[in-house]
Write a sequence for this structure.
């Protein structure tokens, strides 16, 4: 098999022709939505009694009971107001409401994954306990007080850093997504209608990371000019190792120790993780223990037997680091059932490893016409952005799709366009347009054959 080690997933290499030319009529601003019209469909939901329930057991962030102190006995109404109830006492750790229990779906034992419940989340930040996981040899239990990071090879001063020594360097906090390169493999190869947003795209998460720029450590050890690649090694039992161009280390790579305001969770690489913004997740090495500087890639088993993408004509795409522009509608999505006609937001997430998302379009007719969606806030580079498009459903069948464009001009392709370029055997970086089919009875099912 011929291998083209320089065949990075450039914009030109991807299907980039707009599949549909939207007419001016289709691109017009959506009909003005009045407050009265919005409320009309939900009128039956108000006017009834307000019911307040008090949890009778402490629930951990994962939804499972924790060792937190037991709350007070059953709450007693105080005063005449029915919603004024005596609450539970304060606890060492917060808990979600009893009726709210988003969770991942673990697959596998030592080697396996668990996807983030995208359909249950709002905003852009993924709660730390719901960040997707992918392990090749389980989660090692490491002691931060004894853990070390060795940097050696083509450097002036080979150095072993303790976690504390790294934490004493000037730190930065930045928000980036991480996405597994296999995210969406099963839905791409077998687009079954009963798939959820979690199953379709749950191997991506968006986090506020805190750490030190890798460039700072490169200057500390004196990386030599002839160094063009570095090897990153994790401390898990499989000795996960990946080769990384030194240029990425100088550009925006980080050594992180915290996420969303707290230390890394063990499953996310505690106590130290290499973070390579916008690149496939496996190369953001968890439990980082060693960086070796060299002149060429190491060609480890993790970049030859896996994480190499077979292409048409007996070729393969290797070191395909960048995650291309992608989007997913998270609401409505399966197994939702739309039970009221009228206006509602079509909402979802978009991201690109090449920079900021510039535009997200939504189609409600299977891609015949497209409409610009509203982006929430200012899109940040290599981070999730939430989008929404107000849609008036009148009980008709509909196929909802989203299409992202990033600041480089790259446009998210259809599934057929992706197959035409890479072949049906492509095995990584699935960013095809997909969506949801809405039946006349309001039931929502996955639609992946674009």
């Amino acid at each position: 098999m011929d291998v083209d080690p320089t065949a990075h997933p450039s914009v030109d290499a991807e299907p980039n022709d707009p599949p549909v030319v939207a007419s001016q009529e289709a691109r017009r601003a959506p009909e003005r939505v009045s407050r009265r019209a919005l409320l009309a469909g939900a009128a039956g939901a108000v006017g009834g009694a307000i019911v307040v329930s008090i949890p009778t057991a402490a629930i951990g962030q994962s939804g499972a009971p924790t060792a937190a102190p037991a709350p007070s006995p059953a709450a007693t109404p105080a005063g005449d107001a029915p919603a004024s109830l005596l609450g539970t006492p304060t606890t060492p750790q917060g808990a979600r409401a009893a009726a709210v229990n988003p969770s991942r779906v673990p697959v596998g034992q030592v080697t396996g994954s668990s996807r983030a419940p995208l359909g249950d989340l709002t905003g852009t930040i993924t709660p730390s306990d719901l960040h997707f996981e992918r392990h090749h040899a389980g989660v090692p239990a490491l002691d931060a007080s004894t853990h070390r990071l060795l940097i050696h090879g083509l450097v002036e001063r080979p150095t072993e850093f303790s976690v504390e020594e790294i934490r004493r360097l000037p730190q930065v906090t930045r928000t980036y997504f991480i996405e597994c390169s296999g995210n969406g493999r099963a839905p791409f190869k077998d687009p079954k209608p009963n798939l959820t947003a979690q199953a379709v795209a749950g191997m991506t998460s968006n986090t506020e990371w805190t750490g030190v720029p890798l460039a700072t450590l490169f200057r500390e050890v004196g990386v030599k000019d002839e160094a063009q690649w570095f090897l990153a090694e994790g401390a898990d039992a499989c000795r996960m190792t990946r080769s990384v161009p030194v240029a990425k280390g100088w550009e925006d790579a980080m050594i992180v120790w915290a996420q969303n305001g707290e230390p890394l969770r063990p499953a996310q690489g505690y106590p130290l993780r290499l973070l390579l913004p916008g690149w496939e997740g496996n190369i953001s090495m968890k439990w980082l223990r060693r960086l070796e500087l060299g002149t060429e890639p190491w060609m480890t088993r993790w970049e030859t037997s896996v994480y190499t993408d077979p292409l048409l004509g007996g070729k393969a795409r290797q070191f395909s680091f960048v995650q291309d522009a992608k989007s997913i509608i998270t609401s409505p999505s399966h197994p939702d059932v739309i039970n009221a006609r009228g206006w509602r937001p079509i909402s979802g997430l978009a991201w690109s490893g090449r920079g900021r998302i510039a535009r997200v379009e939504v189609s409600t007719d299977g891609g015949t016409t497209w409409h610009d969606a509203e982006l929430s806030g200012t899109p940040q580079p290599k981070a999730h952005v939430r989008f929404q498009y107000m849609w008036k459903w009148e009980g008709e069948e509909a196929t909802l799709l989203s299409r992202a464009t990033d600041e480089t001009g790259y446009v998210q392709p259809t599934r057929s366009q992706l197959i035409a370029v890479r072949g049906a055997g492509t095995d990584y970086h699935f960013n095809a347009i997909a969506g949801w089919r809405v039946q006349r009875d309001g039931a929502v099912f996955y639609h992946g054959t674009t």
Remarks:
- The first strand starts at residue 2 and ends at 4.
- The chain is about 10% helix and 30% strand.
- Confidence is low (pLDDT under 50) at residues 1-70.
